[in-house]
Amino acid sequence: MTDVALPPAFADLAPFADWILPVERDRHRKRVTSDLATTRRFYDAMLPRMEAVLTYLNGRSWETLDAADRTLFVLASAFMEVSHPIELGWKSTDIEDAFPYQRLEFLSVSARTPWGDR
Amino acid sequence: MPAMSARVQTQFRGETGDLAHRVPILEKLAPAHFEQERAKIFRRAWLPVAHASDVPEPGSYLVRNLPTLQTSLLVARGRDGQVRSFHNVCTHRGNKLVREGHGCRRQFSCGFHGWTFSPEGELLVVTDEHQFQDLDKASLGLRPVHTEVWEDLVFVNVEPEPREPLRAWLGELAGDYGGYFARHVRASSNRVIVKCNWNLCVNSFTEGYHTLYIHRNSVPDYQGGTINPQRHRPLMQMFRRHHRYSAPANPDHVLTPAEALAVKYGRKILPAFDGDMTGMPPGVNPARYEHWAFDVVQFFPNVVILFGNHWHIELFFWPVDATTTEVVQDFWFYTPATIGERVSHQFFLSRGRQVFLEDLTTLEAQQEMLSSGALTHPQLSRQEMSLQHRYKVTQEMLAAP
């Protein structure tokens, strides 16, 4: 896992490299196709680190974010994505009888927002 | 703790005496009925298709394919700064001028024979022009569609001469939202095609009665609470065509750990609610209800906007045919100043998406079972009066010559 570049203070999060998904669609798909135990391991590792992560990221500028900082931002975003089934006590990572996630098409907003596709 | 007698009673405003609480649904699902709706509602209405900020500069354009109107529109900002819409058709042989997407161009050239148009719609270049006889270039500009901008929304009307200007169409809503849309930028956009009649789709997003049940897993305690256990809307307004209601927040909502972080490092966005009305235009939380969550406004016929503080959500329901609807949802959030706010956005965005997906879960099931004919006249609650109102306005437009 040494090829995962994270800010040195957050190197402990490197085992969760498969949650480094920069695009919203991919984070959603990863969540609903992961089992609850796997998702909970990621959530449990991230939650106690989130205050430090957010404090660290708030000291950075979006325009000059380097690759390691951006990876940390993406992991924090993935934490928010997985928080729902864990904190709401669902039996799986999607609700029962959910509308099929495959049918949700994410449209590009890149040309129309200050931050590009997410 | 408030006494049970403090339960919220809905304040109804507007004409409600002539609403029918039983709806003859079966006839409304028929293909012939939809063709009437297409002709007398969609082809006569002012319909929002884009934002002016989507085409920010002279030459900026976007393509809107609208199967409901059986056309594709090219929305473009001219060099004079004006936003216009055209049928997206080359006036030579009818090729679709711009296939997809958006961007910025000085001119639009047809890929078929190279005819070229300006962003204002003029025909600029006919290739090998002297081979044509009696060619009147001035009459061969792009075919315009009536276009007006209200706040940041671009409305179109495909009638040769609209029956009324946009502001009259908007009626009571027209002056209510000054500057509101400029507060937000588009954070995410998604689309679903559902095998369901468009009326049923709109109806699923224009009442709050369902929230206790369909959203029990994703937003269990954001609305209502002990002061309003049945989540009665504090205010419902029936306008000439449109309607609006306010949704009630639960003042005793308990933050979960991730949400607490999202609120600490950012601002509250649906499903969390900030009732601070400072600087808010009069149309938002019009009753200035103390435990306000957000407003739901139906822009008749097919657009629903949820107006919040720090956010809004736009829902577009475009029927393809009687039993197929394209649903587009756009999330608009405040512009993040910090990276913490960007992470905070992701909490609310992913939760809001979940709520949206839940709203979709009953649509095809309803379509399937209502089509059976086993239930011909569904009965609507007072909390579903917005649906009653919508059917009334629909009937009025269908009855017009």
Notable characteristics:
heterodimer; A: 118 residues; mainly alpha; 4 helices; 2% strand; globular; B: 401 residues; alpha+beta; Naphthalene 1,2-dioxygenase Alpha Subunit, Chain A, domain 1; Rieske Iron-sulfur Protein; 2 domains; eight-stranded mixed β-sheet; seven-stranded antiparallel β-sheet; 9 helices; disordered N terminus
Write the layout of secondary structure elements.
The complex is a heterodimer of chains A (118) and B (401).
Chain A: H1 24-33, H2 36-46, H3 50-58, H4 67-87, E1 105-106
Helix pairs in contact in A: 2-4, 3-4
Chain B: E1 11-13, H1 25-28, H2 31-42, E2 47-51, E3 60-66, E4 71-77, E5 83-87, E6 102-104, E7 108-109, E8 116-117, E9 123-125, E10 144-150, E11 153-157, H3 166-170, E12 184-194, H4 198-203, H5 211-214, E13 235-238, E14 243-248, H6 257-265, E15 292-299, E16 303-307, E17 311-321, E18 324-334, H7 339-360, H8 363-371, H9 385-399
Parallel strand pairs in B: 1-13
Antiparallel strand pairs in B: 2-11, 3-4, 3-6, 4-5, 5-10, 7-8, 8-9, 10-11, 12-18, 13-14, 14-15, 15-16, 16-17, 17-18
Helix pairs in contact in B: 6-7
Please provide a written account of the structure:
The complex is a heterodimer of chains A (118) and B (401). Chain A contains four helices and one strand. Chain A is mostly helical and 118 residues long. Chain A has one domain. Chain A is globular, with a radius of gyration of 15 Å. In chain B, α6 crosses α7. Chain B is an alpha+beta fold and 401 residues long. The N and C termini of chain B lie far apart (56 Å). An eight-stranded mixed sheet of chain B has the order 1-13-14-15-16-17-18-12. In chain B, a hairpin with a 5-residue loop joins β4 and β5. Chain B folds into two domains: 3-32 and 178-399, Naphthalene 1,2-dioxygenase Alpha Subunit, Chain A, domain 1 (Alpha-Beta Complex), CATH 3.90.380.10; 47-161, Rieske Iron-sulfur Protein (3-layer Sandwich). Chain B has helices at residues 25-28, 31-42, 166-170, 198-203, 211-214, 257-265, 339-360, 363-371, 385-399; strands at residues 11-13, 47-51, 60-66, 71-77, 83-87, 102-104, 108-109, 116-117, 123-125, 144-150, 153-157, 184-194, 235-238, 243-248, 292-299, 303-307, 311-321, 324-334. The interface between A and B is large, with 43 and 43 residues.
